[in-house]
Design brief:
- The protein is α/β, with parallel strands linked by helices.
- The protein has two domains: about 270 residues, no CATH class; about 50 residues, no CATH class.
- Helices cover about 20% and strands about 40% of the residues.
- It has a ten-stranded mixed beta sheet with strand order 2-1-5-8-10-12-14-16-18-20, covered by helices on one side.
- A hairpin with a 2-residue loop joins strand 1 and strand 2.
- Helix 1 packs antiparallel against helix 2, helix 8 crosses helix 9 and helix 9 runs antiparallel to helix 10.
- It starts with a helix and ends in an 8-residue tail after the last helix.
């Protein structure tokens, strides 16, 4: 039995453990039909031309974890942003860990998706927002929808802001020979609300782990959402991250994606602007080696006038790694006065590394400022020589040039402690001590 058939047949067992009377039941049932019809995407599809899931489909993944291994905080402290106090929503092998978590209902709801889906007090919110912006056609998103049960539920009411940032952490311990995880996050910021979120998926085992994650973010009028994704996993962990964002007038949503590790990572980031004077920002730094593969797919759909979007992705690829960037900006005819910027710059530090990049614009309005571009190159030999003449060894000189190349993405990180953490991760990936912190 291949993985697709195993998932479809497992849905019946999943239904037996959830409330079939719940309104979400119909959404799940429709989603599994869609996945059964379409199956896993393949390279015949333009969006997946450079990313193959064939090897993952041959692995006998466990769909439901049989149990979890207890983790001590000291064993995983390094993966938390422990320099500051944060709310924490922690999952171990897909199961919520109350011991490692710190949730709250003090003026805001920072808790579990399973609670939101099952308790009547959340029904009105679930009916309005759940699966409202996530794709009904993209097969891996519908697969997640079919098995949606657990993840983070964050609801920030009007004019509220959590007292501290929120961390969402998923740990895989190796309790299964191969494990498939499908977390589902729902994040809602009502009018004038503001929040900061840091998300991380971390495998603690050499066993195969595949995470198929879906996050829906809703930013109401004047809301501000800062979302940070830290992707620095082990060589046997793969991640497919589907994020869908719906914005209303005057809202600001920024997503930073730091991709430093993992066997295969696919980031699908989709913005939908549903109002005027919206600001949508997505930035990323990718540093890869060995045979690692990262594929960034972005979409910004400008549906109303007087809005902005800004994309800036930097990639550094070594050894036999492979990067993909496919960014699309759509400007509807009504979306006059749009200001959209898209840039993807890449450095190949190995003759065997590969990058495929395709920025795209589809503009149907005639009064806009839109630009896109990409570059692929190597380190500047003259700049490298100049630094060496100043007494800096070649390895450190190359690291400084690469750090400077990625620095403007770091400059927009609004959590200082996270900025310092990412700075150290970059130095570690480059294999040097830069000798300074941000």
């Amino acid at each position: 039995m291949d993985l697709k058939d195993k998932l479809v047949s497992s849905f019946l067992a999943f239904e037996n453990n959830v409330d079939v009377e719940h309104p979400v039941h119909d959404i799940r049932s429709e989603a599994i039909k869609n996945f059964e019809l379409k199956g896993f995407p393949d390279r015949k599809q333009e969006a997946w031309k450079y990313t193959s899931l064939n090897s993952l489909q041959k692995i006998d993944f466990s769909i439901f974890p049989k149990g979890i291994n207890a983790l001590e905080y000291k064993d995983v402290k390094q993966y938390f942003l422990h320099e500051i106090d944060t709310y924490k929503i922690v999952f171990i092998d897909g199961v919520y860990s109350s011991f490692l978590s710190e949730t709250t209902h003090d003026g805001v709801d920072i808790c579990l998706m399973s609670a939101a889906l099952s308790k009547p007090m959340y029904k009105q919110i679930i009916d309005v927002y759940f699966n409202a912006v996530a794709s009904k056609d993209e097969s891996l998103t519908t697969l997640n929808t079919a098995f949606s049960k657990e993840g983070a539920y964050i609801y920030i009411p009007k004019n509220k802001m959590p007292k501290k940032p929120i961390e969402i952490l998923h740990f895989a311990t190796g309790n299964e020979a191969a494990l498939l995880l499908q977390p589902r996050n729902l994040i809602i910021a009502e009018e004038n609300a503001e929040l900061q979120i840091i998300e991380r998926h971390q495998s603690l085992t050499s066993n195969e782990v595949l995470t198929n994650s879906v996050t829906e973010i809703f930013a109401a009028k004047n809301a501000i959402v800062d979302y940070y994704k830290v992707q620095n996993d082990v060589d046997n962990a793969s991640l497919i991250d589907n994020t869908y964002i719906s914005q209303k007038s005057n809202s600001v949503v920024k997503v930073h994606t730091f991709s430093f590790g993992g066997k295969l990572t696919r980031n699908n980031l989709n913005y939908y602007q549903n109002g005027e004077y919206i600001d949508s920002t997505m930035k990323g730094v990718t540093i890869l080696g060995e045979k690692q593969h990262v594929d960034h797919h972005t979409l910004v759909h400008h549906r109303e006038p007087n809005c902005e979007s800004h994309q800036d992705y930097k990639g550094i690829y070594g050894e036999k790694s492979m990067g993909v960037f496919n960014g699309k900006i759509i400007v509807d005819k009504i979306a006059q006065k749009t200001n959209a910027f898209q840039q993807n710059n890449n450095i190949l530090i190995s003759d065997k590394a590969t990058i495929n990049t395709k920025p795209q614009l589809e503009i149907f309005a005639d009064d806009v400022k839109c630009s896109h571009g990409c570059t692929i190159g190597q380190l500047d030999e003259e700049a490298l020589f100049y630094l060496q003449t100043r007494g800096i060894p070649k390895k450190e000189a190359a690291a400084l040039l690469m750090y400077a190349f990625a620095n403007n993405v770091l400059a927009s990180v609004r959590i200082p402690e996270l900025k310092m953490r990412i700075n150290r991760l970059i130095a570690n990936k480059l294999g040097v001590q830069l000798g300074f912190d941000l």
